[in-house]
C-alpha cells in the first residue's frame, strides 16, 4: 500500500496549481482557435496539439500516472491503442459510405 | 495454504483463486486498480461514440451545422461564438484542480480541507450540469432533435444528444459520488480505517470526466 512517498501519492500543492494554470492557458488557446476562425490544417493541427497536451497533463499529473508503476501504466495506456485502429478503419472507408449515400439517397434531396 | 485451496470447491474456489493475493499491480490498492480498469472500459465506450460521430460527419451528404454558430450566445447585444462551452470547459478544469488538492489534503489527514474541497468540486460539477441543461433547452427550442434539425445534417442532433448526454450523466453520477465520499471524509470514516485511498480513487473518476470533456470539446465543438 505504500509508495515511495509514504502513504499514497503526495506531491506539493504548488505542482497542482501550476498544472491547473497550464490547463487554463491551453483551454484559452484552443478557444482562440475558434474565436479567430482559423481554417484548414492549421486549425485541425492546433486543436489536436492542445487537446493532447491537456489530456496528457490530466492523466500524468492529476491522475498520478507519472508516478505509477510501469505494469499499471502499460495495462491502462496500451489497450486504447486498439481504438486508433478502429478510428483508422472507419476513416478509411468513409468515402465508400459517402458514395453509397450519394448513389442511393442522392436523388431524394 | 494448500489445504485451504482444497477445502473450497465450485464458485467459492473461483473467487478464492482470483483473490489469492497474487497481485500484479504491486503497491497499488485494489480499489485503485479496479477504478483504472473501469475507466479503461469507459474510454472504449466514449471512443465508440466519438468514432461514430466522426463517421457520420465524414459521410453525410448534407452540410454539417457549424458548431461555432450553433453554440453562440448573445450577451449584451453581441454574438460571442461558443462562449458557454468555453465557460463550461473552465469550470470543469477548475473542478479538477480542486479535486487534485482534495486528494492531497486527504493523504495529509486534513479531513476538513479535503471534505471542503470535494464539496467545492461537487458544486462546480453541478453548475456544469446546470449549464448543460440550459444548452440542451436552447438547442431544443431551436428545433434540434435526434432525428433532424433546421441547420443541416440530421445526424448532428443524434451525435450531440448522445455524446453530451452520456458525458452529462457521468458528471451527475460524479457529483453524487463526490458528495457521498466527502460526507464520509468529514465524518472520519477513513481515519478509522487508517487510509485515504478512496479520495484518490474518487479523484480518478472525476479527472476522467474532465478528460473526456477535453476530447468532446476538441472534436465536437471546435472541429
UniProtKB/TrEMBL annotation, chain A:
* Compartments, as annotated in UniProt: Cell membrane
Q: Where is the major localization of this protein?
A: membrane
Is tRNA-binding found in the keyword set? no
What InterPro entries does this protein's entry cite? Cyt_c_oxidase_su4_prok
Statement: the UniProt record of this protein carries the keyword ATP-binding: no
Query: Where is the chain membrane-spanning?
Result: 15-33, 45-66, 72-92
| Stored Pfam families | COX4_pro (PF03626)
Cellular component annotations (GO), alphabetically ordered = plasma membrane
**Annotated keywords:** Cell membrane, Membrane, Transmembrane, Transmembrane helix
Bilayer topology term:
Multi-pass membrane protein
Protein name listed in UniProt: Cytochrome C oxidase subunit IV
Automatic annotation (TrEMBL), chain B:
Does the record bear Nucleus in its keywords? no
Span-the-membrane segments of this chain are 33-54, 70-93, 114-134, 154-182, 203-222
* Occurrences of domain Heme-copper oxidase subunit III family profile (ranges): 35-223
Q: Keywords assigned by UniProt?
A: Cell membrane, Membrane, Transmembrane, Transmembrane helix
- Note the InterPro entries from the entry: Cyt_c/ubiquinol_Oxase_su3, Cyt_c_oxidase-like_su3, Cyt_c_oxidase_su3-like_sf, Cyt_c_oxidase_su3_a-hlx
| GO BP field | aerobic electron transport chain
Broad class of where this protein is predominantly found: membrane
Entry's Gene3D superfamilies?
Cytochrome c oxidase, subunit III, four-helix bundle
- Subcellular localization(s) per the UniProt record: Cell membrane
- Give the membrane topology, semicolon-separated if more than one: Multi-pass membrane protein
Q: Name one Pfam family in it.
A: COX3
Q: Name one GO cellular component term.
A: plasma membrane
Q: State if Hydrolase is listed as a keyword.
A: no
Any one GO MF annotation of this record: cytochrome-c oxidase activity
The UniProt family comment states: Belongs to the cytochrome c oxidase subunit 3 family.
| Xref: PANTHER family | CYTOCHROME BO(3) UBIQUINOL OXIDASE SUBUNIT 3, CYTOCHROME C OXIDASE SUBUNIT III
Subunit and interaction comment? Heterooctamer of two A chains, two B chains, two C chains and two D chains.
* Reported function: Cytochrome bo(3) ubiquinol terminal oxidase is the component of the aerobic respiratory chain of E.coli that predominates when cells are grown at high aeration. Has proton pump activity across the membrane in addition to electron transfer, pumping 2 protons/electron.
What name has this protein been given in UniProt? Cytochrome bo(3) ubiquinol oxidase subunit 3
Tell me which species this is from.
Exilibacterium tricleocarpae
Amino acid at each position: 500500500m505504500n509508495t515511495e512517498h509514504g502513504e499514497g501519492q503526495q506531491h506539493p500543492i504548488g505542482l497542482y496549481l501550476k498544472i491547473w494554470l497550464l490547463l487554463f492557458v491551453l483551454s484559452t488557446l484552443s478557444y482562440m482557435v475558434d474565436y479567430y476562425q482559423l481554417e484548414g490544417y492549421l486549425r485541425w493541427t492546433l486543436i489536436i496539439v492542445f487537446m493532447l497536451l491537456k489530456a496528457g497533463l490530466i492523466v500524468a499529473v492529476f491522475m498520478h500516472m507519472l508516478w505509477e508503476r510501469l505494469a499499471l501504466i502499460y495495462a491502462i495506456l496500451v489497450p486504447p491503442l486498439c481504438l486508433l485502429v478502429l478510428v483508422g478503419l472507419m476513416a478509411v472507408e468513409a468515402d465508400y459510405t459517402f458514395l453509397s449515400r450519394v448513389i442511393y439517397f442522392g436523388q431524394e434531396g | 495454504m494448500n489445504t485451504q485451496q482444497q477445502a473450497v470447491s465450485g464458485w467459492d474456489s473461483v473467487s478464492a483463486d482470483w483473490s489469492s493475493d497474487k497481485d500484479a499491480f504491486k503497491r497499488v490498492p485494489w480499489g485503485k486498480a479496479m477504478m483504472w480498469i473501469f475507466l479503461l472500459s469507459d474510454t472504449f465506450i466514449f471512443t465508440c461514440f466519438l468514432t461514430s460521430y466522426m463517421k457520420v460527419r465524414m459521410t453525410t451528404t448534407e452540410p454539417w451545422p457549424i458548431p461555432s454558430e450553433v453554440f453562440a450566445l448573445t450577451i449584451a447585444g453581441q454574438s460571442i461564438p461558443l462562449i458557454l462551452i468555453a465557460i463550461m470547459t473552465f469550470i470543469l478544469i477548475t473542478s479538477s484542480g480542486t479535486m487534485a488538492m482534495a486528494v492531497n489534503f486527504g493523504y495529509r489527514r486534513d479531513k476538513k480541507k479535503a471534505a471542503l474541497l470535494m464539496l467545492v468540486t461537487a458544486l462546480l460539477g453541478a453548475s456544469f450540469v446546470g449549464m448543460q441543461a440550459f444548452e440542451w433547452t436552447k438547442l431544443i427550442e431551436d428545433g434540434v432533435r435526434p432525428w433532424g434539425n433546421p441547420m443541416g445534417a440530421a445526424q448532428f442532433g443524434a451525435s450531440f444528444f448522445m455524446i453530451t448526454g452520456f458525458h452529462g450523466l457521468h458528471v451527475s453520477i460524479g457529483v453524487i459520488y463526490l458528495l457521498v465520499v466527502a460526507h464520509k471524509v468529514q465524518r472520519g470514516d477513513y481515519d478509522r480505517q487508517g487510509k485515504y485511498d478512496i479520495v484518490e480513487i474518487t479523484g480518478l473518476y472525476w479527472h476522467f470526466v474532465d478528460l473526456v470533456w477535453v476530447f468532446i470539446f476538441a472534436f465536437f465543438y471546435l472541429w
